[in-house]
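Hello, quick one for you while I still have it in my head. My current little project is about how a certain protein chain folds up. You're getting the sequence in one-letter code plus the fold written as tokens. Would you mind checking whether the tokens look sensible for this chain? Here's the protein in full, and shout if anything looks odd to you:
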Amino acid sequence: METKKLNNTIEAALMAADRPITVNELDALFTDDVDQPSKDEIRKSLKHLTDDYAERGFRLKQVGNGYRIYVPEDYANWVAKLWEEKPPRYSRAFLETLVIIAYRQPATRAEIEDIRGVSVSSKITKTLQDRGWIRIVGHRDVPGKPAMF
């Protein structure tokens, strides 16, 4: 296999991988090829890519027994902005429900609806439970056995 095609194939595999890739795994990519590169050629290609990336915004590094493309710390401040999470915005109904449960605990859905004057969305109580902000502590001993939050 010609060197440029080998370099490009290894580079594509490393870019697509979400974990370090070993030389054996890179070797396995070429098992069906007629002109399969040797492991030494793969290592030479990895060395060439490491040298080629030395002056770029990303690097190739051996991690454990595999290789991985990563962003150096010099550029971490800018790249991290791609994954910044915006703080969630909570609706008035969501916050009112949370406040009523916190103040009147334990409270049933009917009590919350009575205080608010409107029905409580099951999505709101589910979201509060999923985040661990409220939990069901039991069931009231009345018809329907409503959950107490």
User: Anything to note?
Assistant: The chain has a mean pLDDT of 89.
